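Technical appendix A lists one of the benchmark inputs used to test multi-chain prediction within the project. The record comprises two sequence entries:
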Amino acid sequence: MTLGELCRADFPILSRTVNGHPLAYLDSAASSQKPRQVIEAIQRYYERSHANVHRSIHTLGEEATELYEGARDAVCGFIGARSREEVLFTRGTTEAINLVAQLVGRTLRPADEVLVTEMEHHSNLIPWQMACRDHGAVLRAVPVPDGRHLDLDAFRRLLGGRTRIVAVTHVSNVLGTINPVADLVREAHAAGALVLVDGAQAAPHLALDMVALGADFYAFSGHKLLGPTGIGVLYGRKEVLERLEPAWGGGEMIKEVWIDHAQWNDLPWRFEPGTPPIAGAVGLAAAVEYLDKLGMPRVTVHEQELTRRAQDALAAIPGVTVYGPPSGEGRGAVVAFNVEGIHPHDGAAVLDEAGIAVRAGHHCAQPLMKRLGIAGTLRASFSVYNTAAEVERLARAVATLPAQL
Amino acid sequence: MVYSTVIRDRFRHPRFRGRIVEPQAAFEDVNPLCGDRIRIECRIEHGTLSDARHHGDSCAICAASADVLLEIVVGRATEEAAAVLAAAVLERLEAKIRPTRMRCVTLPISVLRGALASLGGHPDEPVGEEAPPLRRRPDERLREEAPPPPGVPHVKAT
């Protein structure tokens, strides 16, 4: 039995039908489904242990705090961080990147440079456009000339003495390209730049080791990782976090307050003002535990096998263009494609009629779409619960698209 | 079939797709949701929309909507053309459109209004349909007092 067949039963939503067909959920890159273990952990928390964290000196407050801080430890282990002080909870990847853009943004001086890439999701582009706008810095972008990979020579040319931070995705949410982030980090650090890695499409699919990766910041979301919405993680290297001033103020992030000034709290709470997403953290901890039990290396093998099958099956259909690295090269669990003469939204509508959920559009990566010379694509993406049979269903349905429009 | 016969036919065999040489009014806009882009060019003679054409890169619903919209408005006074509502387009498309795709229907209407705005049209009036809140019943969706489209830029493209 494959991993997909083994764990499907844990995901209640997968037993429903859509338009009279069994649901084939191939949109996990947008948001994954949740196993019963996650749903029950959140329910248990709300039914038995909910209270505010850290400040409540009563049993529920203590239980909630234990669960919330326990989630931090679970995530710390999952991503291979050196200490729990390096794990900050946010509402998601977007908020995590915006936080870094504000923290680092205020250290930018006019003519400083920020280096992004053409394959970034808008959430790792717009915050940097804003930071550059606000601080007079210059935004530069590593091109993707072949429509598949970063131009590493251009990266080296663009990386200079004025580069303050490199913001790069670990795995492209469109192409699936796995960027050589450890190498990029080494070169960026040698040039004196910080590195933020957008891990939204990597954390759910690849075993992570923050120490080996070496990045200064790493951001990802809970809801793409079998966890709930409204929770995300910002990993920050302790030495870097320690020298940054908090961008957001409120309760919890302070040690002592006077009317005209305050002393900041220790890490990680310094960057977590207000009541945090406690239930989200509880759910995320359950998701991380679930993935740990499956084993991330096994998850990667399963998903890459599905991705390869999908890529090969779709590419074999006349009129279909598959984007991203060639089959055989490792890639994230996404396959973006187009069918000649068919607008992605029309394709997705027809596939939905057959119970197959895929994403269609620009995938919040318009600069990459412009590079590819297209308005959008269809995108099938995979998670632990998907099966080869679903990939076959997708390919069969895609082959019939031209006849249905 | 997911789409109505009219939508598929108008997508495959549009009657009003193309360009107008030296148009008196033109406008184009993008659907931020999907990146669809549509442009409408108009010939105006004595206050009448004597001819109009659309082109761009869009889904079947949007392309079909543009096509039947121009069929409805060509030959009419510009004021009248600018007052056409989504209900009229939907009726001609003979299709049930999901709320998530309603913007595909209304984009050509707001683009046409953008084009006619320079001639004293009513670009800011409601187009009659704009991604209605889910709490509405389907039969309420065609009511004409629907709110105006949020944030449609009325920037002349030419």
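The mean pLDDT of chain A is 97. Chain A touches chain B through 17 residues (CB under 8 Å). Comparable benchmark entries are summarised in Table A2.
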